[in-house]
Amino acid sequence: MRNLFRRFRRKSRPRAATGRHRPPAPVRPVGASNPGRHYRSSAYRPLCAGRIRDRQFPLVRRGLDPGEVTAFLHRVADDLAALHAELDQIRNENARIKQSLRDWQSRFAPRVHR
């Protein structure tokens, strides 16, 4: 019986000898060289509308209604596609405003004569 209980008992991890709490090591963002984007690893592919629509789920005996799952995935994909389109529009507008500001600054900045 003792052997049976030993099989199901959790294995305890060895503790640090100092007994002090060590702060976790600082984590460097992987995608920091990708300005304006989320910090993701290079292996992670961002979610897009096509990937949501094409997602397949395994069939189970008492699973969810496939029609409802498909309808929900299409709804999420449409929302995501609209967000991506709006984000592209905002990025273009942001670039246009920045360029206009640079032009204005170069036109009206005080000239330095040497």
From TrEMBL:
GO terms for cellular component: cytoplasm. The keyword Amino-acid biosynthesis does not apply. Keywords: Cell cycle, Cell division, Coiled coil, Cytoplasm. Signal peptide: none annotated. InterPro entries: DivIVA_domain, DivIVA_fam. Residues 1-23 have a biased composition (Basic residues). GO terms for biological process: cell division. Its main location: cytoplasm. Residues 73-107 form a coiled coil. It comes from the Bacteria. Residues 1-42 are annotated as: Disordered. It is found in: Cytoplasm. NCBIfam families: DivI1A_domain. This is Cell wall synthesis protein Wag31. The lineage of its organism: Bacteria, Bacillati, Actinomycetota, Actinomycetes, Micromonosporales.
